[in-house]
Amino acid sequence: MKYYDNPKATFDKAAFTITGDAGCEYGGGPAVGYYNPQGLSPEMGTADTYAGGVNCHNSQNGRPKQMFIGTMAYARFWFKKDIYAVTLGGGLMNNPGRYLTLLPPINGATAITGTPYYTENAGDRAQMHDGTITFDYMPSQFITFRLESGYRYSDTPYWTGRGGITPPAFAGGPPLNNGQPSQYACASGAPSGQGYGNLTAAENYCIGAGLNNGGTGTSAIWWPDLRTNQTVTTLAIMVRF
Description:
Blueprint: E1 2-5, E2 11-24, E3 67-79, E4 84-94, E5 127-140, E6 143-154, E7 159-160, E8 183-185, E9 191-195, H1 199-208, E10 226-227, E11 229-239
């Protein structure tokens, strides 16, 4: 909604937008396996094995809630006959089950392959929020120079840290995807042959095969560097043809 427009003034225009989304999933049969009622992510080796049905709005009969709710709002202000603009905004979301949460491409993972390092099991927590401030310089209608800074937070490790999300190259050299994103990677970067739910077997394989780089227990496995928060600053030039 544009609520202010005064072309002759230095501050010449203002508008805002508000968006909301909500939905849920249900069905899938009875409760099967162990469900962590806290919705804690099992990527660090817990033995959660839930594979049963889900409920739409609440957790009951041992079946977790599987839903999505999100909202975002932005306010934009234009100056000097739309040559400059500032945008403030942010949003938040809650997505138990993570069925709409984008999967981090850990070791080249996709939504089809999945990854044991960031699971999408029923009931897995995903609560996030973000905020941004953007400055635009638009000397003509065909080009925009943009400077944007934003902060993002997740209640479970999600954003890529300095250590990256690509395992070390098995044969040496820079980090390299090993071609088996659905498996745990050994500390050396080699695939372990074991996926989610088989962490102990993966550790034993890596140690037995000498692919653990001297580590024992979970240290025999490579782990991506995932963080709960991230601050990003972007400088961009956008050209319209």
